[in-house]
Amino acid sequence: MALSSPQSTSQVPETEKDFDLLKCSKIENGKKEADVDLPTGYRFDPSEDEIVVYYLFNKILDRELPITDVIKEISVYDHDPDELPNGDFKHGCDCNEAFYFTYTEQIYSSEGKITRRTTKSGYWDLDGEEEEVKYGNGDITVGFEKVMVFHKGTAPNGIETDFIMHEFRLNPLIVPTHVLNDSIRAKIERYVVCRIIHEGISNYQPTFKLPPGWTARPVDEGEPN
Fold it and tell me: What is the pTM of this model?
């Protein structure tokens, strides 16, 4: 899976040159997941740009995260997805998503520099083209997203499974130059966030609780809601 070469600075749109990533991603006081006081029924389900701006970028710069322990750090590509802890798949609308920070391993082949996405028993196969991640509803590209499906066996004849991964990387062109050093540049190139979805399960349980004395009843057919 070849990596595209980064855009040159001269090609960066003026809007991206003026974009203050440090300011918009700043978190004053991060919390642990257990300390987040939310109404019943809420769960961790970040948008694509929130994953990149508030988690990946801040992690790369060793800054405060909104929730400090919700995204674990693990070598994702050293494990088959069914080896990952079942308890991690508790996020997203269906409570069947797990989030991880991880490094990618880049190797050289006859096709040039590629990213290794094979595991002990299979491989992650790219599903479609890499997409830009926009900030909010605007035009600023803060990162890039790849979608992959896990296959058991050896490429290209593996058997498709119900594990899907969204891999997010940071757009290096929006990182302020004054924070860059060799270590940060290396992280920007190799450090990603993975959202892994286990489509074969759903841990969702209705969480709305009626007040004491109330009960729910089915709506009769033809009866207005």
Answer: 0.80
